[in-house]
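Suppose a colleague, Dr. K., hands you the sequence of a protein chain of 192 amino acids and asks what its three-dimensional shape might be. Before reaching for any lab equipment, you can write down a predicted structure in token form. Begin with the sequence itself:
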Amino acid sequence: MNSDVRIDEYIAAARPFAPILNHLRKLIRQAVPDGSETIKWGMPHITVGGKNLVAFAAFKKHASLVIHNRPADSEGMGHFGKLTSLADLPADEAIIETLRQARADLEAGVRPVRQRTRNPKPEIPVPDDFAAALQSAPAASAVFDSLAPSHRREYLEWITEAKRSETRTRRIATAIEWLAEGKKRNWKYESC
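The predicted structure, expressed as tokens, is then:
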């Protein structure tokens, strides 16, 4: 593995987590002897065939090991969570095996299925005045009903956030016009 002097400097400045980073670097070199060291996004990375395989970093209160294209096993940044001492790491053999498997997956083009962690926002009820306007414009109503929930939300937020009744009335009229033309709320920005 090539050695990058910038990583030596990064680790030297990463006190008190330098021992963790040195240990991780040693294990990475064992698992991926033909990898390339570099600095990306301000932290040490090891690449294989020009693709990111693993990164390690030190922060104010912890260090972390990030294995690209692998879901993290714990809370916090990194595959092994927030590391504050060598005791926080699993056995060396487990880390090496994880790195070898990540490399095999990278070379095979395997990507993990990412779990959605956020819950969708609740639907905003359609205000009575907007519902009446939609009812009087069947084409606009059909388009509104066919929109994804996020696009319906954009129209509803725009209408309900109006402070003055004149603004709200004008926004409802514009919304009906745009919906009748099959346009989403932010249609002006879609071509940018």
